[in-house]
Amino acid sequence: MAVIGGYIGGGGGSGWICITDINVPGGVADTKVYQDEAETVLQSCRVSSLDIEVVLRASYPVVAINGTFSQLAPASDEGHYAGSVLLTLPAPGVLTVKLQTPNNATGAEDVAVVTYEAPPELLTLEFAGSYPGSQTELKAGDTFQLTGTTDRSANAVEIQDFGAMVQSVQTFVAGTSFTVTGTIADRGTVPQLLSAKARARSAATGAYGSVRDTALGGSVEPINVVKCCNLHPMVIWGAVTYPASQGALKNSESATVGFSMANADHVIFSSPTGDVSVLKPTLSEDPKTVTRISGSYNDATDNLRAVATRDANGAQTTVNTLVKIANVAATIAVTKPSARLRSGGNNGTAPQDHTITITASQELYSAPSLTPAPSAGTFQGSGFVGGPKVWTRDLRVIDPDSKGTFAWQSPSAVNLAGIPTTTITGDANYVLGGFVARSLSFPAFSQSTLIGTAVVDYSKLVAGVFTATNQPAVRTPTQGDTANYSNRFTVTALGVMPTTLWWNDVAAAATNSSGTAQITSVEEQV
């Protein structure tokens, strides 16, 4: 009978002991019945192996399990001892644990009833079916069936990561026979005959039986072994050769593409986008000839495909490449870094370089070209640089250059297929206006000095201070007003090169006997 709480005295009749749990390392212990709601005193259980672990609590450290003594350790919460003991039961039945008292007498005892249900064992295990299609080998990812029988009810088999197959658990309706599907592993690129291993899972306990090898039944292909080889075709696209002086196709032009392959029995060429047709689409040759048949522009999406097949294992390799199409003219847009491009170079300033950008809607075969209006800036360097769609060049603007709005001259660009473009999309003009900051000196007793460029927008004219008075230089409200005002300035004309700046402060100018007075930071802003 089960001992309630383990408080039945033995020979000396003292202390207490209880079985708190029974486990099966690597197996299953289930259908556990406990004496108490807290599940601290086990009364019975079912195990899938007679190699068990018995978990105990007791008032003294020495215990005897089925007559074999073991030592428990002090429990963490003190006041008693606890631990587990590994043992092999000679047979299922009543497991008895007894306490050894400090005076070597037999103390309290506890019992638990252990029943045993062996996991299912595979009686047979074989490959079933045939190779896919016309294959004579299997590659990684292919599937193949395993069939077998067990000595007792099972509801799954665990296929091992061994030989022909990768690890997986395949379930089925509980019974003593099964057919499941496993996945072929990658075991290299040399053909080899490989077996598979699996073990069955109990429908009752979930415990697994022993592993069985399909090769135990013999070496017949494809029953005990299957031939595995994960060799795939190798396909390499080479360089594309376009018509002379082109980097793309237009109309019905053709290009050749370098091609090589190995480990393949046949190949099929096609165009996934329909841009091109392929000459001799089932013939492996180097190079392959393709002809444009549709599409306006393609510089990014692969449009030529080769699918090579190795017949033995059905392995395919698909490799795409791009034959560029440019059947329409590109458009170009010209942008400037600011609304007005300011000048410099006189009055101690540096010439001003402004980066002009040409953006094309397509890749260009060569750098585009553009010319500024006469006396309205000078491009630096030998041409536009960058590409294939965005190109830049610096436009140098000096103070003597004309100011105003100008049209870009002679725009020209050629796309990859040799189609020219001679117009600018969007704004085709640029504006030269304003100049960078500079300090200007007044001759002795003079109210005027020269700005080494033309002023075109009086409202954008600003300055720093008059050094003679150390006061901010304020622009007169009306351009050309030369009346006497303290610390004010104006210009006598617009669009004149050079422009005269007028110092309105008569008294301050009269004190500039040394000719050292200045107006600082004069600029026409953007």
Describe this structure in words.
The protein is built from 1 helix and 45 strands. It has 526 residues and is an all-beta fold. The protein has 5 domains: 4-116, Immunoglobulin-like (Sandwich), CATH 2.60.40; 122-228, Immunoglobulin-like (Sandwich), CATH 2.60.40; 247-260 and 268-326, no CATH class; 332-431, Immunoglobulin-like; 442-524, no CATH class. The strands form 12 sheets. Strands 2-3-10-9-5-6 form a 6-stranded mixed β-sheet, with no helix packed on it. Strands 11, 12, 13, 15 and 16 form a 5-stranded antiparallel β-sheet that branches. Strand 24 (304-310) and strand 25 form a beta hairpin. The longest helix is centred in the C-terminal third of the chain and has 5 residues, at 506-510. The chain is elongated, with a radius of gyration of 47 Å.
Supply database-style keywords.
526 residues, mainly beta, Immunoglobulin-like, 5 domains, six-stranded mixed β-sheet, 1 helix, disordered N terminus
Number of strands: 45
Assembly level: single chain
CATH architecture of the largest domain: Sandwich
Give the rounded overall mean pLDDT.
95
Uncertain ranges:
1-12
Proportion of residues in β-strands: over 45%
Assign the structural class, choosing from mainly alpha, mainly beta, alpha/beta, alpha+beta, or little secondary structure: mainly beta
Number of domains: 5
> What overall geometry do the principal axes of the alpha carbons give?
elongated
Distance between the termini: 103 Å
C-alpha-based Rg, rounded: 47 Å
Strand order of the largest sheet: 2-3-10-9-5-6
Percent helix, as a range, is under 10%
Instruction: Specify the CATH class of the largest domain.
Output: Mainly Beta
